Every structure is written in C-alpha cells, then in structure tokens.
Q: What sequence folds into this?
C-alpha cells in the first residue's frame, strides 16, 4: 500500500489522532524545502562515533547544524503561521534537524556496530523499537524520536537502564492492535513502544501515530522516554 494512503486510512480509523495528524502534516510541509547539510562520508561518520560520541556532538558538525538552524527557524515559523509555544518550538527544532541530516545516515545498515542505547547521530534516547526478522531469529532496532535514525540494539532487556533480567520486564498490549506492544521495565518504570511487524513503519514507527499506546502506559504510571516533547 502507498504509505500516504496507508497513514490516511489509519488516521481515519483512529479519529482521536486527527488533530495530531494535522499538526505534524503542517510542520512537515513547512520544513519540506530544507535540504540536508554536508556531512562527512558514511565511512568517516562510522569512525567519528567510535568512542561513543554521536555525530551532532562533534564541534564542526554541531556548529554547522546550529548555524543552519538559526537561519531556518524563523522562516519555518513564519510559514507555519501558528501561535508558537514551547511544544511547537521543540517540534519545529527537531523537524528541522531531521531534514538537515542526509537520509542515508539514518539507515540502521550504517549503525550495525553502534550497539548503544542512544542515537549515533544526535544522541537522543530512542522513542520506539522494532523487532525485525533476521536469520538467527529476531533482532531489535531502535528509532530516534528526534532525527529518525535507526540502529540495532540488544534484543532483550530494558532499552533505558541496564536491567537485563527478564523477570523484571513485562509486556502491555492493546488487543485490537497486535502490530505493537509495550515493553515495560519494572526496574526503572519506563517503557518502549515496540512494533513487532514489518511493512507499516510509517505508522508504527511514528511517535504521534501510536499515542494511544502511550496513554495505556500513562494509566499505569510508567515513564515515557525519548520524546522530543518531554526532554
Ligand atoms: Zn537522533
Ligand atoms: Zn529499565
């Protein structure tokens, strides 16, 4: 199915998401003119992060992103024509950063060896996870809520603390939507929404589109991590 039609049908059947869809669509449109800035080559990037320092925390890259941001923000804000509050400001900032990073750097293929619980590109904690079929079973990939990069991480255990004890993890589910589950850590009381299928990444690896799973977790007093809205 065409991605755009897919997400439109999905929002139709999840009408509580309509306002969110509208807002994110407007932001997407407002940043759509932004082209990625120049980054080192993929191989150079892999070397740059070897010590665990994400790309955007390297002085040279950081200053170029900041410079572009200072120039672009006012344009984006003006074209959005909305009342700007702190939330919107954060969404705009990260939508711009997302556009400034070349697509090829966001692919998990680039980051197979990173194996950390924060984004190799911008350094944020992941907001979503995906279980993908691999030769030896299933592997877990994490998705950055800020710059959309994906990278591989441990298959089991908490994504946010060092709890690897499965006795101290449990799962929450919404019966009608088996595509996604919530992996809960009983040690740090955080959770990560986990897409356990493949094909509808545009929906199930999008934070706002899976908001009802956050509501379920919120009812249980669990902490959300990785969202650009909260940290
Ligand atoms: Zn990131
Ligand atoms: Zn934990």
A:
């Amino acid at each position: 199915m065409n991605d755009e039609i897919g997400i439109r049908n999905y929002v139709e059947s999840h009408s509580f998401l309509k306002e969110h869809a509208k807002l994110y669509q407007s932001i997407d449109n407002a940043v759509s003119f932004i082209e990625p800035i120049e980054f080192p080559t993929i191989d150079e990037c892999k070397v740059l992060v070897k010590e665990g320092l994400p790309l955007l925390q390297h002085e040279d890259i950081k200053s170029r992103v900041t410079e572009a941001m200072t120039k672009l923000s006012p344009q984006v804000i003006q074209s959005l024509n909305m009342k700007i509050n702190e939330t919107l400001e954060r969404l705009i900032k990260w939508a711009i950063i997302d556009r400034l990073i070349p697509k090829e750097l966001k692919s998990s293929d680039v980051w197979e060896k990173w194996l950390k619980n924060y984004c190799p590109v911008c350094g944020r904690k992941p907001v979503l996870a995906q279980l993908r079929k691999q030769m030896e079973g299933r592997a877990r990939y994490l998705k950055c809520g800020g710059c959309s990069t994906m990278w591989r991480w441990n298959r089991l255990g908490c994504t946010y603390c060092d709890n690897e004890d499965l006795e101290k993890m449990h799962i929450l589910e919404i019966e009608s939507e088996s595509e996604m589950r919530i992996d809960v850590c009983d040690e740090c009381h955080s959770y990560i929404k986990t897409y356990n299928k493949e094909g509808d990444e545009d929906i199930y690896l999008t934070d706002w589109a899976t908001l009802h799973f956050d509501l379920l977790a919120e009812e249980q007093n669990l902490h959300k991590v990785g969202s650009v809205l909260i940290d």
